């Protein structure tokens, strides 16, 4: 028996003995750890406690708990270095926080569930390891009403019982990897039976993205046409490539076409190819994207933007799997797996006669909706870290986010979704003067982020695009942008919420008129790139005016 017990009371010795006996009494690790946790909590007077285990994804996820309210698993989920719980795991060291309300990250996460009600709640935490291998974290919340309670003895007991807990977790992991102990798996809630789904280069541990990943794995082996739906910037092409990679056609070509980027004439030639002499400049025969994708997968992005006349031509190809090149008369047969994507409401377009109903039914075989970033905020810290890690690799930097920075990212509306988050992280990292990126490093904290120029958020409680929850809580300031107009510096203010033009088309025209129909200046005014405003102008059918 370790020398530690020589100076401890008999009660402490008995408690440790009972916990160890509980842990070795059954192969069901979840049951024994749950009982041990309740026993420790009762004997030591803890308010609540939980055990979080390290997942292959890198996250710390809740395994069992006592004293926490319903939905605790959603709150007990941390990045390896996120908050005090993540630091316990990454540093492999125990921690005592005498006043948990000073740790805003945890106070925000658990306080909303009334689990930290009352004054002077302390946190005790210790890593769970086996033979030096980190497996998880044991955390307890304790009352400290007079602020003088010493927790050294509690923490020492936690460190002692963490060793047999690590043994139990290791045995459980090995058994699950071998497919054993089926009774343990069947006893868990259905949603926890499924392993975490992963897709290469995609970050998504939230329930909504896990459902997307599960659908991807399910539809990939089939030949069925897939319709990807979601707002701009949600990662539709990434998911399309994932379906291709997991399909039986992954050794054949993957060909991608953005339908919105091409006029109808160019789109027909791009998709179907052309014969020599079909039009001016056609000096030789050219295969189209359908032919190039033969045997593989063709991804048509922004399919909701094609014209009604071209919809009829596309429908014929999908029905008969053959077409003629532009300027040709010989049918060309192809075998392609089709994946299409759109950010538009196709059902409404069908009702209004803008999209053919027969084409809609042809492409809407399997539909996968990609949630906007604001519907999966729990993924934002991991996504931000992913983009920052990539920036560090590409630029030889060692930047890191503070907790305050991650809170800013998590609080923004992200109207541009993952693409906007990626740009924000890259911009902030590029301008960072130190290795630590904090809350004040972001433009939105200085009221200089103008993403809201092209988006109108109707919900009064929604955070403005490009503004964090902290910035949104303060008095709204109408941002202004200096635009070089010839030899003068004309200062234009974005219209306020009440008087600015409604609708994307109207806002585009407003910006272009303010800037003399110079796209680059209008893009700066609206806080977007020239390429983005060019695409938006084409999509909305706005012709450029020349002066």
From TrEMBL:
<dbReference type="GO" id="GO:0005524">
    <property type="term" value="F:ATP binding"/>
</dbReference>
<comment type="function">
    <text>Required for activation of most nif operons, which are directly involved in nitrogen fixation.</text>
</comment>
<dbReference type="GO" id="GO:0000160">
    <property type="term" value="P:phosphorelay signal transduction system"/>
</dbReference>
<dbReference type="GO" id="GO:0009399">
    <property type="term" value="P:nitrogen fixation"/>
</dbReference>
<dbReference type="Pfam" id="PF02954">
    <property type="entry name" value="HTH_8"/>
</dbReference>
<keyword id="KW-0614">Plasmid</keyword>
<keyword id="KW-0804">Transcription</keyword>
<dbReference type="InterPro" id="IPR002078">
    <property type="entry name" value="Sigma_54_int"/>
</dbReference>
<protein>
    <recommendedName>
        <fullName>Nif-specific regulatory protein</fullName>
    </recommendedName>
</protein>
<keyword id="KW-0535">Nitrogen fixation</keyword>
<dbReference type="InterPro" id="IPR025943">
    <property type="entry name" value="Sigma_54_int_dom_ATP-bd_2"/>
</dbReference>
<keyword id="KW-0010">Activator</keyword>
<dbReference type="Pfam" id="PF13185">
    <property type="entry name" value="GAF_2"/>
</dbReference>
<keyword id="KW-0238">DNA-binding</keyword>
<dbReference type="InterPro" id="IPR003018">
    <property type="entry name" value="GAF"/>
</dbReference>
<keyword id="KW-0547">Nucleotide-binding</keyword>
<feature type="domain" description="Sigma-54 factor interaction">
    <location>
        <begin position="202"/>
        <end position="430"/>
    </location>
</feature>
<dbReference type="InterPro" id="IPR002197">
    <property type="entry name" value="HTH_Fis"/>
</dbReference>
<dbReference type="InterPro" id="IPR027417">
    <property type="entry name" value="P-loop_NTPase"/>
</dbReference>
<dbReference type="InterPro" id="IPR009057">
    <property type="entry name" value="Homeodomain-like_sf"/>
</dbReference>
<dbReference type="Pfam" id="PF00158">
    <property type="entry name" value="Sigma54_activat"/>
</dbReference>
<comment type="subunit">
    <text>Interacts with sigma-54.</text>
</comment>
<dbReference type="InterPro" id="IPR029016">
    <property type="entry name" value="GAF-like_dom_sf"/>
</dbReference>
<keyword id="KW-0805">Transcription regulation</keyword>
<keyword id="KW-0067">ATP-binding</keyword>
<dbReference type="GO" id="GO:0043565">
    <property type="term" value="F:sequence-specific DNA binding"/>
</dbReference>
<dbReference type="Pfam" id="PF25601">
    <property type="entry name" value="AAA_lid_14"/>
</dbReference>
<dbReference type="InterPro" id="IPR058031">
    <property type="entry name" value="AAA_lid_NorR"/>
</dbReference>
<dbReference type="InterPro" id="IPR010113">
    <property type="entry name" value="Nif-specific_regulatory_prot"/>
</dbReference>
<dbReference type="InterPro" id="IPR025662">
    <property type="entry name" value="Sigma_54_int_dom_ATP-bd_1"/>
</dbReference>
<dbReference type="InterPro" id="IPR003593">
    <property type="entry name" value="AAA+_ATPase"/>
</dbReference>
<dbReference type="GO" id="GO:0003700">
    <property type="term" value="F:DNA-binding transcription factor activity"/>
</dbReference>
<keyword id="KW-0902">Two-component regulatory system</keyword>
